[in-house]
Amino acid sequence: MGILSQIETGKKIGQPRAVIYSEPKAGKTTFMASIPGVVFVPLEDGQGTLDYARTPQPTDYETLVETIRELATADHGYKAVAIDTLTGVEDLIREKVVREDFAGSLDKFLAYHKGFTFCANTWVEFCKELDAVRRKGISVWCAAHSKTETVDDVSVGSYSRITPALHKDALAVVAKWSDIIGHIDIERFAQDKGAKDSQRKTRTTGTTGIRNLIVQDTGSHMAGNRYGLGSPIELIEEDPYGAVRDALRAAVAPKAEPKQK
After folding, report:
1. pLDDT in tens, 86-119
2. Whole-angstrom Cα distance, residue 229 to residue 213?
C-alpha cells in the first residue's frame, strides 16, 4: 500500500496541550482545579484552600518523569493532568543538568551558555513524556508565572510584553510544543487617589475583579492557540474552565452544511 493511498482528510485534533500563565494569585491553579477529572503534579506549594487530586510532589527530575510515565501507562480515571508549575519543572531540569553534565558545578553550567543548551534538550524530552500522556486521551495543562521582557522588533522597534517566566531556550521549546498559550489577565482601570481638590494625587489602578484568558497575541502578551479560539475568554468565578470548554467544543465541532435554496 503506497503512502498516497493513506492520505487522510478532515480535522485531526488531539487533547489540548496548554500553558496558562499569569502574575501571582491571579487564578492559574484555581482555573486548572476546575477542569473535570484533573490530577495535579505539584512542583510548588500553592494549593491554599483548594481541594483537588494530586500526586506526591517530585523532588528531582527523575521522580517527575516517573510520575508522568505512570500517568501515561497506568489504569486510572483522570481526564486531565495539571503541571503546577513549569517554574518548578525548570528548577528540577537545571538541577539534573548541573549534577549529571557539569559535575555539580554551577559555574561550569553558566559558562558560555552551554548549560542552558543542555537544559533545552531535556525540555524536549520532557515534552515528549507529556505527549505520551496526551496519546492516552488526557489533556495536559501547565501553569507558569509571568514576567515582562523587552522585544527588539525590526518592524516596529523595541517594546515590552508579558511572557511565561522561563529561560528563553526553555520557552522556545514549550511554545512550539503547546496548542494553547494563555495569559490570565485581571481587568484593571486607572484611578487617582487623594482628595478631589488636592493637587497631590497619586495615579494608581483598581480592578473590576473580572479575569480574562487571553489566547491570541496582543503584542503586549505572548499568547496564541491552534484551535482558532476567540480572545479574550472571560473566566467565570463559579466555573473558570467552563467558557474555555465551550470554546474548545465549538472549535472542533463540524461545520453545518449551508442550506440549499
Report:
1. 999 999 999 999 999 998 998 888 886 789 999 9
2. 11
What Å distances lie between residue 35 and 79, 82, 170, CA to CA? 9, 9, 26
Residue-range domains of the chain with CATH: 14-252 (3.40.50)
In this model, does residue 13 exceed pLDDT 80? no
Grid cell listed for 28: 492559574
171: cell is 520557552
47 pLDDT more than 90: no
Which H or E run contains 184?
strand 180-193
User: What predicted TM-score, i.e. pTM, was given to this entire model?
Assistant: 0.87
Which residue type sits at 147?
K
* 217, three cell numbers: 497575541
The two beta strands, 80-84 and 53-54, are unpaired
Nearest residue to 208 via CA among 226, 223, 188, 193: 188
**d(Cα 56, Cα 63) in Å, to the nearest integer?**
10
Return the closest-CA partner of residue 143 out of 248, 24, 5. 24
Q: Give the pairing of strands 38-42 and 157-164.
A: unpaired
